Amino acid sequence: MLRLIILILLIPFAVHAARFSGEGFGADRETARANALSDLASQLSVKVRSEFSLSENSAGKTDGHRRVDAYSDLPVLGAEISYFESKGGFTASAVLNTEKSLPMYEKALNSLADDIRKNLKTVAGTKGEQTVVALETAFAKADNYEKILPVARLLGSEYKKDEDISSAEIAKLLEAVQRTASTFEDAAFLLTRDITQKSIYVFPPSAENSHEITPFAAAVQSVLSGRLASGNSPDAADYHFSGEYTVQGKEIILTYRLVNRWDGTTLYARTARLLPAAFAGLDYKPKTADFDALLYSGLAVSNDFRVDVSTNKGSRNLLFKRAESVEILVKTTAPAYVYVIGHTVKKGDKLSYLLEFQNAQAPGRFIRFINADDANKWVSLGEFSVTAPYGVESLQVIASAKDPSDAVPLVKFDGSSGLYIVNRDPSKAVTSARALVNSGLKKQENAVSEAVLLFTTAE
């Protein structure tokens, strides 16, 4: 126990000229700039998911979809960067506005559409490995096309999507001509061949509509890391290699993308079709799908007052091993009070508890204050060691501009675990905490926001 692809629908959003911004702190200007761009990309992703939810609820239907990582997967084009000195370094502001950036996004869409059509036309005149390469090239470009389009829509674009371009359909064509993999090594070769980039962080793949890392996913990450110039931290890498898998009959379709961390561009997009022999004996089915869906759906998020949560290994596709050190980090856009509810969902071990931050009487024991100097910076909530029992853990972070003492859940100390228990039913704990946040948002009496994080621990 640790003590302490999202779907984006490619639909025409109802928006007008817009402006989005992100802030980042660093010891030098380059670090501050990188953090500001990462924050901007994260806010764009949150906004796109929010627009999807509103559009789906009002329209009741959709016209296509893709999975987008909520980290830095959305390309940022034409951001204006400004700097000012702050305590201990520099703070950078990255601003994306319609006037400057929209023409760049629409130009990129037109260029990608032309390239994809040309790639698909050449497929007819190829065979064997040439067909695979042509389809993989089209697949990567279609992935970029489908990431750029929703951002252009947010900026007010009326660009009409080319209905003949679909990364999902190209992936199906690729699966049909790609040779099957009877071992993990075969699959790793198909996914990583000719990749010469250095400084790559390999994420374990996610199961469809899940943030849990299964034993199958952990094994995939291990094999792929052995074939690439990989590192131990996504923040120290220049490229991210991430993917997902789906089950088709008795086979597993594994898809991976190599993305430039600094601009969100997909460089390679590939698939591998694994035969049952390749993953025999490995569990590939998520065990916490219902709780996962509850945790990530209906997040209580404010546009002006935000909180983010991450770890020393990032915030997505997280797997931590026995005795590994996990550092929990939070960032707020303004001074804030923060409290964190941990949720454990494992066989025979389900509970929710409050994280302790200081030696004080409740509820002050569970509240951490982020001051003005630390706003827009990643603040450590502490390092914790992974111990048994292993399984799925999650954190629900609540930030409030005002002292939330009245909103902090009542707890009961459990002597055997040393934890302050909120509820033995994590689903009820999530729902109750979120209801309080949503109530605050509706009343507009206090600025409140929520962020969540799910990770898997294993021996």
From TrEMBL:
Gene3D superfamilies: Acetamidase/Formamidase-like domains. Keywords: Lipoprotein, Signal. The keyword Lipoprotein applies. Residues 1-17 form the signal peptide. This is LPP20 lipoprotein. It comes from Seleniivibrio woodruffii.
